[in-house]
Amino acid sequence: MSTTIKTLFLDMGGVILTNGWGQASRRQAAEKFSLDFNEMNERHKLAFDAYEAGKMTLHEYLQMTVFYTPRPFTPEVFTEFMYQQSQPLPDMLQFVQQLKAKYGLKVIALNNEGRELNDYRIRTFGLDRFIDAFVSSAFVQLRKPDIAIYKLALDIAYTKPAEALYFDDRLLFIEAARSLGINGVHHTSVENTRQELLQYGMNVQ
Question: Are residues 13 and 33 part of one domain?
Fold first, then answer.
């Protein structure tokens, strides 16, 4: 079966993995470590963009959000808890690999993620076995929905916008990609995405 799509751009959190450090995980951390969630979350909002953009380390982010005052636990223990929040979404992992194999697609991760979390997730779940390049915010110091990160991803993939398809669970990020002519699928479930792909001549059961 033929398709005009040559490259698949792929968000990670909420598509093939759980979110790396979303609000639900921060609430769990506040409960587990007896932290004031509201205070931690306000500090998170001020610091996390810089962390995701590769402008501070995870250690520096945690110093600003958690360890600005003495705690009865170590940064290492807290960091391990953060890492444990990442879990695979097996159905989508399998689906993306089937798409790649059947249609010979380049697969490029296009995600907002801090370096240490990103490295952990790539290594732990073997994402580099089927993802050809990682246009991660911490690597390129650009964050979605900045149009520049989508343009960079197109250049790295050496793909025309009309030949690219982008999966993301956040509609705003899809809309930003579409403004450049990139095809987008707002991912809400494997079945929804499977159905959306039919219009591109792509069918994986």
Answer: no
74-100 burial, b at 16+ Cβ within 10 Å, e below that, comes to eeeebbeebeebbebbeebbebbbebb
Give me Rg for the CA atoms of the chain.
18
Whole-number pLDDT of residue 3:
73
Return the number of other C-beta atoms located less than 10 Å from residue 159's C-beta.
20
Helix and strand numbers (H, E) in the chain are 10, 5
What is the per-residue pLDDT across 66-110, written as a single tens digit (0 to 9) for each? 999 999 999 999 999 999 999 999 999 999 999 999 999 999 999
For the chain, how many structural domains are there in total? Answer: 2
Residue given tokens 């009865």 in the structure block: 72
Phi, psi torsion values for 105, nearest 5 degrees: -80, 145
